[in-house]
Amino acid sequence: MKLTALAGGVGGAKLVDGLAALLPPEAFCVIVNTGDDFEHLSLKISPDLDTVCYTLAGMANPETGWGIKNETWQVYKTIAQLGGPDWFRLGDTDLATHIMRTALLCEGEPLSAITQNFCQEWGVSHRVFPMSDHPVRTMVHTNEGKVLGFQEYFVQHACEPVVSRFEFKGADEAKPVDDALRRLNESDLVVFAPSNPWVSIDPILAVPGYRESLRGKPVIAISPLIEGRALKGPAAKMYRELGIRPSASAIAEHYHDLLTGFVFDERDRGELEKIERWRIIPLLTDIFMEDKQDRIRLAREVLSFGQTILSRSH
Ligand code: GDP
Ligand code: CA
């Protein structure tokens, strides 16, 4: 079975890590959101891409969920002492990634090729694709009529502003990475990782080509919400502010035109009827991933659910 996952950062990376432990590189790859990318101190930062790569490399910082483990902060502190910005933390080791990526992008190398080379150095054998080599920027529109860059909203304003809508600037002109689209087209099954639908998966789907490739393919999404709450980040808050009750069924509804199957938590069994009404095949299980064992267990369940769905459709 060939599988492609779509993912954002922290939540997505956990399931991707489990899937990568079970499937060989020729059978599994991941397409990652780059709507969060931005420039900081003239450095080109790709937060979700780095989170997925560092997680697969076993380098991720378990406390923060982002950045590198056993990190030091000398450069960041010194920059702040010199009057530089201190709202976006960059570790000393992590900085090497951003400096090299910036230099290579400035020399004209595409982000996908840079990521592939970094992954090789980090010992990551599965392909990790940025959704596009063209810049796409997630902009957060607030109820006060302000438009914030994603990191400005997420980090600088700590997700406090009330959102009214999202815009994926540049998406219309962007193109999928060729190899990513080819791998997606060749996939038997597609998995939407338990990432934020609004700002992690929607930006990927906004790049012309991916959505079309998904039509007619079995797609399984995993809920990032349990009992209406996000395990981390603003997903539930965003639903509320947009006038939708955050719940497993709200996630299923978000994607429902694309979904064949939906994986949600046993604690949300009450949502089952609603989900089945949309002719989505449900899988109720424990979707919380605390450690590596949980990631592998959930990934295994998703794979066998996928097999069942595939055998039904033949
Ligand atoms: P970000 O880009 O770092 O915000 O990461 P993602 O968009 O990939 O993931 C954020 C989502 O992951 C949040 O909505 C969380 O609720 C969800 N999440 C985090 N940990 C887990 C977990 O263990 N299980 C599930 N099902 N979702 C999780
Ligand atoms: Ca993100």
Can you walk through the features of this model?
With 314 residues, the chain is an alpha/beta fold. The chain has a single domain, classed as CofD-like domains (Rossmann fold), CATH 3.40.50.10680. 42% of the residues lie in helices and 18% in strands. The chain has a 7-stranded parallel sheet with strand order 5-2-1-9-10-13-14, with helices on both faces. A 3-stranded antiparallel sheet has the order 7-6-8. Helix 1 (10-22) links the parallel strand 1 and strand 2. The mean pLDDT is 97. The structure holds guanosine-5'-diphosphate (GDP) and calcium ion. Calcium ion binds at residues 8-9, 36, 47-48, 200. Calcium ion is lined by residues 8-9, 36, 47-48, 200.
Distance between the termini: 14 Å
Strand order of the largest sheet: 5-2-1-9-10-13-14
The ligands found in this model are:
guanosine-5'-diphosphate, calcium ion
Q: What would the CATH topology be?
A: Rossmann fold
The 3D shape can be described as globular
Helix proportion of residues, in percent? 40-55%
Structural class: alpha/beta
Under the CATH scheme, which class? Alpha Beta
The count of domains is 1
**Overall number of strands:** 14
**Order of SSEs:** EHEEEHHHHEEEHEHEHHEEEHHEHEH
Determine the strand fraction and express it as a percent band. Answer: 15-25%
By DSSP (H or I, 4+ residues per run), the number of helices equals 13
Point out poorly predicted stretches: none
**How large, in whole angstroms, is the Cα Rg?**
19 Å
CATH architecture: 3-Layer(aba) Sandwich
Average per-residue pLDDT, rounded, comes to 97
* Corresponding CATH superfamily: CofD-like domains
**Main sheet: strands, sense, barrel:** 7 strands, parallel
